[in-house]
Amino acid sequence: MPAETHVGNGPLERPQVFELVRDLLADILEISPDTIAESSSFSEDLDADSLALIELVEGLEEELGERSVGFRIDDEDLEDLRTVRDAVDYVYAKLGGN
């Protein structure tokens, strides 16, 4: 599913944030979204290097900047994101989720 389909008007629920992160990662890493779980480690399970994570951040900022003006992932926070769950929790919290 192309990431563009995630853009809408209401706030994103946590499952939608996971889908967005998963779909972007699958596209960047050229793997099936079905192989990405919330528990997946970027480096150990998905073999994602720092460039792939930068692409993920850029993709999230582009997609979510339309929903939440000024949405940005701080560089210093990036080092704390080790798993897909970390990224989903971080993005969901930045968007005002619990």
What are the SSEs and their pairings?
Elements: H1 14-29, H2 50-65, H3 75-78, H4 84-94
Helix pairs in contact: 1-2, 1-4
What does this structure look like?
It is globular and about 30 Å long. With 98 residues, the protein is mainly alpha-helical. The chain has a single domain, classed as ACP-like (Non-ribosomal Peptide Synthetase Peptidyl Carrier Protein, Chain A), CATH 1.10.1200. It is built from four helices and no strands. It has helices spanning 14-29, 50-65, 75-78, 84-94.
Keywords:
48% helix, 4 helices, disordered N terminus, 98 residues, single chain, Non-ribosomal Peptide Synthetase Peptidyl Carrier Protein, Chain A, mainly alpha
Radius of gyration: 12 Å
CATH architecture descriptor text: Orthogonal Bundle
Low-confidence runs of at least 5 consecutive residues: 1-7
Number of domains: 1
Which superfamily, in CATH terms, is the homologous superfamily? ACP-like
Binned strand content: under 5%
Sheet/helix structural class: mainly alpha
CATH class: Mainly Alpha
CATH topology category name: Non-ribosomal Peptide Synthetase Peptidyl Carrier Protein, Chain A
Give the overall average pLDDT: 88
Q: What's the β-strand tally?
A: 0
In this structure, how is the largest beta sheet organized?
none
Distance separating the two termini: 26 Å
- Report the helical percentage: 40-55%
Discrete helix count: 4
Shape assignment: globular
Order of helices and strands: HHHH
Which oligomeric state applies? single chain
